[in-house]
Every structure is written in C-alpha cells, then in structure tokens.
Amino acid sequence: MKTVDLIVPCYNESEVLSMFYEEVCSVAQKCSDYGFKFIFINDGSSDSTLEIIGKLAQKDKRVKYISFSRNFGKEAAMLAGMSYSSGDYVGIIDADLQHSPELLIDMIKAVDIEGYDVAAARRVDRQGESKLKSALSRRFYRVISKLSDVEIQDGAQDFRVMTRKVVKAILSMPEYNRFSKGIFTWVGFKTKWFEHENRERAAGNTKWSIAKLFKYAIDGIIGFSTTPLKISFMTGVVFSTLGTLYAVYIIIDTIINGPDVAGYPSIICLIVLMSGLILTSLGIVGEYIAKIYMEVKRRPLFLVDTTNIDKRD
Ligand code: UDP
Ligand code: MG
Q1: Which of 38, 96, 137 to mutate to test the pocket of ligand 1 (most atoms within 8 A of CB)?
Q2: Residue 38: what are its φ and ψ, rounded to 5°?
Q3: Tens-place pLDDT, residues 224-262
Q4: What are residue 122's DSSP bridge partners?
Q5: What b-and-e string marks burial along 206-238, b requiring 16 or more CB atoms within 10 Å of the CB?
Q6: Among residues 187, 167, 183, which one has the least CA distance to residue 6?
Q7: Distance set, CA 148 to CA 99, 159, 185, 226 (Å)
Q8: Is 66 exposed, middle or buried (0-12, 13-18, 19+ CB in 10 A)?
Q9: Which of 74, 75, 130, 197 most suits a substitution to test ligand 1, by most atoms within 8 Å of the C-beta?
C-alpha cells in the first residue's frame, strides 16, 4: 500500500482543528487505497492547539505531531514536516480549511497515476482578501519573476502533493532564509497545476499582516535574485560617467571663463542625489550581508520540543 503523509502547519488554530480533522478523514476514507499519516506541526501556539492535537493522536494512530519550542514560522513548520515524513507522497495543507482537502484526491491521483512529480494549487481569485493586499501580491509576483531566475506562478500556494524524490530535492537545500515558493519552483520537476478558488478561513485569524508580507516579499527577492546588487552597480556606473563628464565640463568652463562662484544650487543637488544613491546602494549590499550573516551562523531552522514520530535518520 502506498503511503501519503499530510503536513499541517498549525499556529493558534484551535478553533478549526477538529473541523479540519473531520474533513481530512473523509478524504482519507475516499482514498482508501493509500495509507495516510497526518503530521501536525504545532508552531509554538499559545492556545490549546497542542492539547487538541494530542487528543486526536490518542484516538487515531494516523495522527502524528511535532511541537516546536516556540514559533518558528510556517517555512520552518513545512521543513520540519518534510524532514520527519517517510511516506511515498507528501502533501502540505493549511489547517484553516482555505485549502480544500477535497482537492487532495485529484492531487494524489496526479502524482500516483498520471506520472507527475508535483501537484500544486494556484488560486484563481482572491476573495476574502483586502484589495490592497491583492494588488500588492500581484505586483510582487511580477517583480520577483522579472528579477530572479525562478518564475513563480501568480497565486501559487504552498498547498501541494509531492513525490519522495521532490521532497528529497527540497530537503537538500539547507538555506536558513527559506522562501518556499522560490524553492518549490527552483527544484523543478513535472508539475500539474490545479486552479483553486480561495475560500474564507473557517475560523480564527490570518497570521499575515501587510508588514509581514512585505518582509516576506523582500526575503523572496533577496533569496532568489542578485539583480538588486546589479542595479545598484549599474546606477553607480551611469552616475560616475555622468559625473566625470560634468567634471570635464566644469574644468574646461573654468579655464575659459574663470572660476564661477555661483555654483551653489548644482553642488547641493549633486550632494543630495549622490549621497542618496550611495546610501541606497549600501542598504542593498547590507541586506545581502545580513542574509549571509544569518546563513553562516548555521542555526537550526526549528527546535522540537515534543513529538510522537520516530525519525529514522
Ligand atoms: N502558520 C504557521 N506558523 C506561523 C504562521 C502560520 O504554522 O507562524 C500556519 C497557519 O496555522 C496556517 C498556515 O500556516 O495553517 C497559513 O497561515 P494563515 O492562514 O495565517 O495564512 P493566510 O492563509 O492568511 O495566507
Ligand atoms: Mg489561511
């Protein structure tokens, strides 16, 4: 019997967990040819998420959990789930029922029968999300696709089912600053896309504020592109050239017409412009150095407090 491990990152999801569990059980029932495991990752929740998962685990052998020592974020939760998984197929799904578990049936079919390596969901509408957030997200996908060497589908989600081969490939990327959407695209493999309607969250609140999303966007760009460094270099080159030409002009003008004391406005303008440029470039370089700094520390991406999974390696 082929096995499917479902990874479910949970951060303060006590309100939806039992609803989620029921839906996912009915999916497992419909796919009775597969052996399921539900791996819940408790990402340092401060509510009763862990107790609820613990209770589920007591009555259902398929329920596994990994509980972090604190909140490490969804990226870390997905990574932990993958590294503790052992199934032939591995799925990732949100606990809030925004990713409809029903879709898993077709996704599993795609990887097991149709010969795809990845079945991934892409949302086609952004209902239940603020206008500003949708507009910013769209812009982000366009910017990152232009800047980086990975083309990320607009609306691509973390909701997916993968073969063990793909999971291995993802786990072989040890980077600390993880931007999963980029990593998923970067590893490649044959992917089938499922169009997916956005559902309202069943209960509880989103953990993403605009500020958090902005940071996420910057992480994505820095993690998968060195274009900002090139832009700052190219701007530097253009301005040095223009500066040199201007200097030559001033020198010739001074030789011919004598020194000109009335150059105050142009000097101020140049100083303001150039120092702005220098600071911006330094800032961009600084962002990369900050990432390098975090990478070289080689800190673990998550720390496990308790789990009921025997990790094989
Ligand atoms: N999540 C997590 N750790 C976090 C934030 C979120 O494990 O620090 C989980 C959360 O419990 C949910 C999924 O990631 O299952 C998606 O989060 P959310 O629904 O808040 O994001 P949105 O759907 O609004 O993008
Ligand atoms: Mg959600």
Answers
A1: 96
A2: -110, 110
A3: 787 888 888 788 788 878 888 888 888 888 888 877 777
A4: 156, 195
A5: eeeeeeeeeebbebbbbbbbebbeeebeeeeee
A6: 167
A7: 27, 22, 11, 7
A8: buried
A9: 74
